[in-house]
Design a protein that fits this description.
heterodimer; A: alpha/beta; Four Helix Bundle (Hemerythrin (Met), subunit A); 16 helices; B: 368 residues; 7-stranded mixed β-sheet; 13 helices; 11 strands; Translation initiation factor eIF2B subunit beta (chain B); cytoplasm (chain B); eIF2B_beta_subunit (chain B); protein biosynthesis (chain B); initiation factor (chain B)
Chain lengths: 462, 368
């Protein structure tokens, strides 16, 4: 039972660190333990769900499944606030849960769920699917627990960083693994790793890089020699993991650094968005080679990652300018080259990257500035994505990244959901292929409509 | 009398310093204050022919415009006032002329002014006897004309005060049920427009935060407290959600003579993303924002620059002197990106803005 690499949208769920002890309070609120208000509210919800199911067919498939859960999960058809509440449903304390349901009961009585009102918010309800229940704590390796915690708190971000961290954690897990009697490593190790993987996915949806790496790992595991003694088999696997990291990420980055670095000429004004580890390496490498150029770092909420890139570049001595995304229109006329990174690339040439990259690419194309995407081949995904809604991730609510300026008074900012207000922070978006000039990979510089030939170029099927 | 003059001069000086120190926030506020100051100036002014009055107002207007050149509504209000004054004067003069003939026909009204200014004509009926430069009674001209001018100024004031209501008059025709509307920043005009439409239609609004001022937060709060279902998203997701958006409704700071406009930074991104997705862009702006100036954008200084600490503050200590930070407050959005301007005077496509300007202002006043 391997988790699919590309998952539907999962809501953020900061405080859940795979702590299973926090799950039972929800399960405990069966019909008996709920207060009268909660029961009434649940009945109303179910009634509304039935009515909406009659009205709006398959759209309600997911919401009515939610209603079936014992916890007071929301149906999107009922009150506008409910999809959000289902995000926050696994609240750490029972008291928070009580206030939540009280608030929802209030909301249910206040706002009449007219079909039209509900529809506007239902369009985004798939952003708020509930998280799957996580496994019991005992089975999860402590390294994986720690990694999941780091993921859920966004301490490790970026496709490459997450993949390398995951693979390193798996190396530890594999070394600590002992094949139970009457089992072979090649068959049992996979079933042992699956719950660990699900735990990581529950903390934060899996990135395409992690998915590709894990798929490769599974291939290696199932292909491992049955006759090898256990320790040798484990060492061989760890060696394969190291090779994967070295070949597909580290060396690939070096090749990309050189290839993209050759595109940078003296006097260039290079624009980059947010923080890509590959672009950082390219810029530092080109600067070390002595090319004279300046960099404009464009940044935006929710993550404001560009500041980290800015400090790295500025301490290396590169001349930098820093702007927020809305100011792009004023500065794009000065730019000669746009370099961005990617989370994944798709076979139709679309690039799935940090939210805001599509805007940067669009503005650059309008001003005839070349847009170069630096991306390793292991980020290639065979799926075709058409827009940013098919697959996306929401950042957790609140000011997790301290991304509001300190000069702005906190009470002038809206940081919480309201009866008619919902805060969405999508983390990714899709740049269509017509905005991209070229993709630099370790197998060469490829135009976007030839991305589908990457597996061929690599000589094997991904 | 000299005290009167000082009084009005003091009012002008106060407004000049307020403008220079940017204590007047918002183009409508600036326009209102300008009208009030000019009303004081006109009421206390002494003139014996129309040119004196006009040059007085122009000099006051020039001072106000120079105090804050980026606040275009100040200059626009002065020009509008001058236009009204000239019109009143012309009506009064020709009204006199026609009263001396006994025939006073409606066709004169129709022929003399612009078609839309019909409400101005009836005021100066053929009861005024205007004598310019009367050597015996130098104040007679002013005395006779002033009440008429005061009414004209009151007209301008009324128009400014009812701007929001007039723009929102046809709101329900522009927004349909179940639409998803994108807006950015916090424009009072758009807020009123949406609130009025919400009485008749139910729709959803997505508000982009619009860093670094993050005015979008107030807008989202205002809309949601009025019962409109709203989403607050960061600017980075404007392109991502544009495929679901039916209409983009934004406000303007100033509308230029070529049909382009200055709007809060981020509008250019939204307008371009909308164009890529073939989504209509609707701009709600009062008529006082029409500026008879052509595309000033080639000058980088046309954009107002705000405090960089909202972008990169001093808490980033060691970066502050190594890095350039840019924080423009306005974007220039070209006429090809806007589909319609909704003003208190009706809806206009960008291609007919030049005609509006010709009708609203006099050619002599383009340069104050």
């Amino acid at each position: 039972m391997a988790p699919a690499p590309s998952l539907p949208i999962h809501p953020p769920n900061g405080p859940v660190n795979g702590d299973a002890s926090k799950q039972p309070p929800q399960g405990r609120s069966s019909q008996k333990s709920m207060t009268k208000a909660e029961r009434r509210e649940l009945q109303e919800k179910q009634r509304a769900a039935k009515a909406a199911a009659k009205a709006g067919g398959p759209v309600n498939g997911a919401p009515s499944k939610q209603a079936a859960k014992p916890t007071p999960q929301a149906t999107a058809a009922a009150t506008p606030k409910r999809p959000t509440k289902s995000n926050e449903a696994p609240a750490p304390t029972a008291s928070a849960l009580r206030t939540q349901t009280a608030a929802r009961a209030r909301a249910a009585s206040v706002s009449v769920p007219t079909p039209a009102n509900a529809r506007g918010l239902r369009i985004f309800s798939h952003f708020g699917l509930p998280k799957p229940v996580s496994v019991a704590k005992g089975d999860i390796h402590p390294t994986i627990l720690r990694l999941a915690l780091q993921f859920s708190e966004f301490k490790i971000t970026g496709a490459n960083a997450r993949c390398i961290a995951t693979l390193s954690a798996f190396k530890t897990v594999i070394q600590d693994y002992a094949t139970p009697p009457n089992n072979t490593l090649s068959r049992h190790l996979m079933t042992y790793l699956s719950p660990q993987i699900s735990h990581l996915v529950a903390a934060r949806p899996m990135s395409v890089t992690m998915g590709n790496a894990i798929r490769q790992l599974k291939l290696e595991i199932s292909g491992s020699d049955i006759d090898l003694p256990e320790q040798d088999a484990k060492d061989a696997l760890c060696q394969k993991i190291d090779n994967y990291i070295r070949d597909r990420i580290i060396i690939a980055d070096q090749v990309i650094e050189e290839t993209a670095g050759n595109k940078i000429k003296d006097g260039d004004v290079i624009l980059t968005y947010a923080r890509s580890s590959v672009v950082q390496k390219v810029l530092l490498g080109a600067h070390a080679e002595g090319r004279q150029f300046s960099v404009i770092v464009v940044d935006s909420r929710p993550m404001l990652e560009g500041k980290r890139l800015l400090s790295v570049l500025a301490s290396a001595g590169i001349q930098c300018t820093y702007i927020l995304l809305p100011a792009l229109g004023a500065i794009i006329t000065e730019v000669t080259l746009v370099l961005v990174g990617a989370h994944s690339i798709h076979s139709n040439g679309a690039v799935y990257s940090r939210a805001g990259t599509a805007l940067v690419a669009m503005m650059a194309k309008l001003h005839s500035v070349p847009v170069v995407v630096c991306c390793e081949t292991y980020k290639y995904s065979e799926t075709v994505q058409l827009d940013s809604f098919t697959k996306n991730e929401l950042a957790p609510q609140g000011d997790l990244f301290s991304s509001f300026p300190s000069v702005k008074a906190r009470d002038s900012l809206t940081l919480e959901n309201d009866e008619h207000l919902e805060i969405l922070n999508p983390l990714y978006d899709l740049t269509p292929p017509n905005c991209i000039t070229a993709v630099v990979t370790e197998v060469g510089v490829i135009p976007p409509n030839s991305i589908g030939s990457i597996p061929v170029a690599l000589g094997r099927l991904l | 009398m000299s005290a009167d003059l000082h009084g009005s001069q003091r009012a002008v000086e106060t407004l000049v310093s307020k403008l220079r120190r940017r204590q007047v926030v918002g183009s409508r506020e600036a326009a209102l204050e300008t009208v009030l100051v000019l009303r004081q100036v006109v009421s206390k002014a002494r003139f014996s022919n129309i040119d004196q009055l006009i040059s007085l107002i122009r000099s006051v207007g020039k001072r106000l415009v120079e105090a804050q050149p980026k606040e275009h509504s100040v200059g626009n209000t002065v020009r509008k006032l001058l236009h009204h004054i000239r019109e009143e004067y012309n009506t009064a003069m020709t009204g006199n002329a026609s009263s001396s003939k006994t025939v006073y026909s409606i066709s004169n009204f129709v022929l003399q002014g612009q078609p839309r200014k019909q409400n101005v004509a009836p005021k100066s009926e053929a009861t005024l006897t205007l004598k310019e430069n009367d050597p015996d009674d130098p104040d007679s001209f002013a005395r006779v004309l002033k009440p008429v001018l005061m009414e004209a100024i009151q007209d301008v004031l009324d128009e400014l005060e009812t701007v929001y209501d007039n723009i929102s008059k046809n709101a329900k025709d522009h927004i349909h049920s179940d639409e998803i509307i994108l807006t950015i920043g916090h424009s009072k005009t758009v807020e009123t427009f949406l609130k009025v439409a919400a009485h008749h239609r139910s729709f959803t609004v997505i508000v982009a935060e619009t860093g670094p001022s993050y005015n979008g937060h107030e807008m989202a709060r205002a809309l949601s407290s009025a019962g409109i279902s709203s989403f607050l998203v960061p600017d980075s997701s404007i392109y991502a959600i544009m495929s679901r958006v039916n209409k983009v409704i934004i406000g303007a700071h100033a509308i230029l003579a070529n049909g382009g406009m200055f709007a809060i930074t981020g509008s250019l991104l939204a307008a371009n993303a909308a164009r890529v997705h073939s989504t209509p862009v609707v701009v709600c702006a009062g008529q006082f924002k029409l500026t008879p100036l052509w595309n000033l954008y080639h000058d980088f200084g046309a954009l107002d620059f705000a405090d960089p600490s909202s972008v990169l503050g001093f808490e980033e200590g060691n970066l502050v002197d190594k890095v350039d930070v840019l924080n423009p407050y306005y974007d220039y959005v070209g006429p090809e990106l806007v589909d319609v301007f909704i003003t208190n005077d009706g809806d206009h496509p960008p291609s007919s803005v030049y005609r509006l300007i010709k009708e609203t202002y006099d050619d002599d006043d383009h340069e104050l």
